[in-house]
Amino acid sequence: MTPAVSKAVDEVRAAFPDAAIRVREEPDGGAVVLVEDVDPGAQYKQRSTWIGFRITFQYPYSDVYPHFVRGDLTRVDGAPLGEAMTSTTFEDRPAVQISRRSNRLNPATDTAVIKLHKVLTWLRSR
Amino acid sequence: MSSTVEQADAQTPGKGHSVTITVNNKAVEITGPRVTGLQIKEAAIAQGVQIDLDFQLSQELSSGETRIVGDADVVTVNKNSVFTAVAGDDNS
Fold it and tell me: Which residues are in the Multi-ubiquitin domain (chain B) (predicted)?
């Protein structure tokens, strides 16, 4: 991993001290990160999901995007998941892709862990 | 821990004491110790930090954890309090 990607992974570990964090290093210096067992929110039938994302070797000059959660995520009210969420696979797992792009990315402040918090906050607000 | 997030009223402006916190790596003076997320962003903008009021605020804790601070959340700040404000995301 590049030093920046390694630091980003450390920050994710620190932010989720009780969660299992799986990291797969990529040959170009990036990494794929999976955080197991986070709460997507009370509006979902499943109160636990993994959330995964790729930190590319260009980080922090590239967005950490998109994010992925368990593929069977469904709402309690039976409504579709809605905008910015589509079914796919991620790391050989059935997944829902969450497409939230940071169009005003500031490499000095937009870290992978802050992006992860933003995506989780958005998911819980749906 | 250097601060706490509460769902309570912030102090009345002007009744506290001046505290220098850090927002996006810049020193920001604010009347503390109890302030809302919105007050932190307002103070930062007034002192030249290049953010907008709709940015998402987070706090870097001494433990290494990061937590989101909503506009109405009240935090107790001190000179070691470090915050980051970033622009929101868009669907794509």
Answer: 19-82
pLDDT in tens, B32-64: 899 999 999 999 999 999 999 999 999 999 887
Model pLDDT for residues A70-97, shown as the tens digit of each residue: 999 999 999 999 999 999 999 999 999 9
Number of domains in chain A: 1
Count of domains forming chain B: 1
CATH number, residue A48: 3.10.110
**Residue range of the domain that includes B40:** 18-86
Distances in Å between the alpha carbon of A54 and those of A22, A60, A63, B50, B76?
Answer: 12, 12, 10, 28, 34
CATH number at residue B59: 3.10.20.90
Encoded tokens for A76: 């309690």
ipTM above 0.90, yes or no: no
In a domain, B58, yes or no: yes
Of A15, A106, A122, nearest to B86 by CB-CB distance is A106
Among B25, B68, B89, beta carbon nearest to A100: B89
Instruction: Give A110 to chain B, closest Cα distance, Å.
Output: 6
Please state the rounded mean pLDDT for residues A51-71.
97
Structural domain span for residue A116: 3-124
* CA–CA min distance A35, chain B (Å): 15
Q: What is the DSSP string of B70-81?
A: -TT-EEE--TT-
The interface residues of chain A toward chain B in range 15-34, judged by CB-CB distance below 8 A, are 15, 17
Distance CA A66, CA A84 (A): 10
Residue type, A95: A
Chain B residues whose CB is inside 8 A of the A103 CB are: 87, 89-90
